[in-house]
Design brief:
Keywords: Repeat. InterPro entries: ECM_Regulatory_Proteins, FN3_dom, FN3_sf, Ig-like_fold. This is Fibronectin type-III domain-containing protein. It contains no helices and 14 strands. By secondary structure, it is mainly beta. It is rod-shaped, with a radius of gyration of 30 Å.
């Protein structure tokens, strides 16, 4: 039946009319057409050190240039970095032995942001910097060490000679005394920091002869 003069006819608009185009080379491009910013995908932790954590990100292929913003927080420390949308992002100058929350966001050229992706990581504990012998005799020795940066639950201390397991103890102080040693023997001193979650640092090592 033919439409009357008072009726309007409506037609479906072609999909191309509603969808932003990827322009050919040489054409002008308006990044504001792309309001939606995809969140970072497949974010993995590549490496955890005592003061740095590195992440692997899958880059998003698009004519829009994105940046990555990484916000990090702990109970005592927070910060933020912004970098190009590349495969690896490294956060440095962190506190050793500390639990961090990392929030990763992708930002478009028009300032729009994606939803955040959150990960958790605890930096490695740092070992004591220096061991100093304060008292030495033929059968005993006392020594102390500098307190390392970051959180410390206990110190794991070992005093051993070549071919022997030696003595091992845990202490909350940064000094210790070992008795009942053998005269004229070279002893190796090992001090590691231990976190509340059980993670132990590499040892600081020194040696002394009774």
């Amino acid at each position: 039946m033919a439409a009357s003069e008072d009726e309007e006819e409506f037609f479906d608009a072609p999909c191309d009319f509603l969808t932003p185009h990827y322009h050919a080379e040489g054409d002008s491009f308006d990044p504001s057409q792309f309001d939606y910013v995809p969140p970072p995908a497949e974010v993995t932790i590549l490496h955890v050190g005592s003061d740095a954590v590195s992440f692997g990100l899958t880059s998003h292929v698009s004519p829009v240039k994105y940046k990555i913003q990484m916000d990090y927080t702990s109970d005592t420390h927070k910060g933020s970095i912004k970098t190009e949308d590349c495969g690896i992002v490294e956060v440095e100058q962190l506190i050793p032995g500390t639990e961090y929350t990392f929030s990763i966001t992708r930002i478009g050229e028009n300032g729009n942001q994606s939803t955040a992706v959150s990960l958790f990581a605890c930096t490695d504990p740092a070992p004591p910097v220096k061991i100093t012998v304060s008292k030495l005799s033929s059968e005993s020795l006392s020594f102390h060490w500098d307190i390392p940066p970051g959180a410390v639950q206990t110190y794991i201390v070992r005093c051993c000679s070549e071919g022997e397991t030696g003595k091992r103890l845990a202490t909350h102080k940064n000094s210790v005394t070992f008795d009942s040693l053998r005269p004229g023997v070279c002893y190796s001193l090992h001090v590691s920091t231990q976190l509340q979650n059980g993670r132990i640092s590499k040892p600081a090592i020194s040696s002394v002869k009774t």
